[in-house]
Design goal:
About 35% of the residues lie in helices and about 25% in strands. Strands 10-13-12-11-14-17 form a 6-stranded mixed sheet, covered by helices on one side. A 5-stranded mixed sheet has the order 3-2-4-1-5. It has about 425 residues and is α+β, with helices and mostly antiparallel strands.
């Protein structure tokens, strides 16, 4: 192939995807993407894919094409600024010496890893049934502009692979596919938008799109339940409310007392879903503990001003939060601890209410322990067990199966045995 005198800094790139749809009902579906291919296997598969793309796109010989012999979950592709695609383009540019050469470059792995760490798939359990093999065209700006228009117009509608490619792919990765076809990044984004919109999550899509395509400014979402999210760059900012704060000055302040339990569960459900999804797609989620002044400020401001107000407050660190409601200055040691599992059937534990007493039954402490991340739940449990062991405290864990709160005080309360439908768990 001949070299073209195109300055390297003027080379452009445009990405596409090979979409692999698996059948989750089959025995060979494990939920973990397969290991990456060797250099030889990746090169053989790349030859088949290039032939199909040349046919579908009516000629790609004048362009460079690079692809890895690996499959990725869509959360690895749809990251702020699309770093995996950028890494592929950079590897191709780095291979050029003295000018642009349109060639096919297939990347294989050595012991499961690529030379460039940004390209190595994470192979997380729970991936699929949609897996993706990205590829990237390299060339002059005008050529890539024409190619982009053709890909967006034709690739999804006419992007089915040939029987030879399907057989080669199945042999290379050892997967049984329901469907194997080409698509663009835009197609993948549109598919996810439909899925999220169908589940009432369109504001989440808008937050993700803003950061994927590195839009300028701040994108915000305020949900009906009072959840707030701001994204700028690859950072998301959100408020965390304890039940007491949510019910007293937060989004639940105007609800009737009888509606507080369901209202907070709804807020917690959306909060977890949004935060987990944003983190899965590569955003750094910054949690800020709500307070009345910040609540008032965010109600009156938007955009950069709202982001600045949230950044003035240190973010919550660690995996859990302890809200201290009462602490007696008595030096008496804790002799009895009652732990209420404030839980929801769908969401699991939302908080542990911890009430400790001395030998005479006097209240020493009342606290609420909130897990901020999934691993925080076990951290809370371990810390409470250690605390009881150090002081020889009798521990009683009560599971009422719901949120227990005082309607008059609009605050979580500790359970009694009468609140528990079954026998309490008592650990000495």
């Amino acid at each position: 192939m001949t070299k073209t005198l195109i300055p390297l800094n003027e080379l452009k790139h445009y990405a596409g995807l090979l979409a692999v749809e698996l059948d989750p009902q089959r025995d060979d579906f494990t939920g973990t993407p397969p290991e990456p291919l060797s250099v030889a296997a990746a090169s053989a598969l790349a030859g088949h894919l290039a032939k199909d793309l040349n046919r579908i796109l009516e000629g790609i010989e004048h362009l460079g094409l690079i692809l890895p012999g690996a499959l990725y979950d869509q959360t690895e592709i749809l990251q702020p600024g699309f770093p995996l695609i950028e890494a592929l383009a950079e590897v191709y540019r780095g291979s050029l010496r003295g000018g642009f050469t349109p060639q096919l470059m297939a990347l294989g792995a050595d012991e499961g890893h690529f030379p460039v760490g940004a390209i190595s798939p994470q192979r997380r359990p729970g991936s699929g049934p949609l897996l993706l093999l990205p590829f990237c065209f390299i060339g002059a700006q005008d050529d890539l502009g024409r190619l982009a228009r053709i890909m967006e117009d034709r690739l999804l509608q006419n992007g089915e692979v040939s029987p030879a490619t399907r057989e080669a792919f199945q042999q290379a990765f050892g997967l049984t596919m329901m469907n194997l076809s080409f698509a663009t990044i835009g197609d993948l984004c549109a598919l996810l938008r439909v899925q999220l919109d169908g589940n009432g999550l369109l504001p989440l899509w808008e937050l993700l799109e803003h950061t994927w395509f590195e839009r300028s400014g701040v994108c915000s979402a305020a949900l009906d339940g009072g959840n707030r999210f701001l994204v700028a760059g690859d950072h998301a900012h959100t408020l965390f409310y304890t039940f007491d704060d949510w019910a007293q000055f937060g989004p639940g302040r105007d609800l009737a007392p009888a509606e507080l339990g369901e209202g907070y569960r709804r807020w917690a459900r959306w909060q977890r879903q949004y935060a987990m999804t944003l983190e899965a797609y590569g955003l750094h989620v910054r949690w800020v503990l709500a307070n009345p002044q910040l609540e008032e400020t965010l109600t009156a401001t938007v955009g950069e001003a709202a982001k600045a107000a949230m950044r003035e407050i240190p973010c919550l660190s660690g995996d859990y939060l302890v809200e201290a409601i009462f602490q007696n200055d008595s030096e008496h040691s804790e002799q009895r601890m009652t732990i209420t599992n404030q839980a929801d059937a769908e969401l699991g534990t939302l908080a542990y209410t911890v009430m400790s007493q001395d030998a005479s039954g006097q209240l020493l402490r009342l606290e609420h322990h909130y897990p901020l991340r999934p691993q925080g739940l076990q951290v809370i449990i371990d810390r409470l067990i250690d605390r009881c062991a150090e002081q020889g405290t009798e521990r009683q864990v009560l599971h009422p199966g719901r949120l227990l709160y005082s309607e008059n005080g609009r605050s979580l309360r500790s359970a009694t045995v009468a609140d528990v439908p079954g026998p309490a768990e008592r650990v000495h």
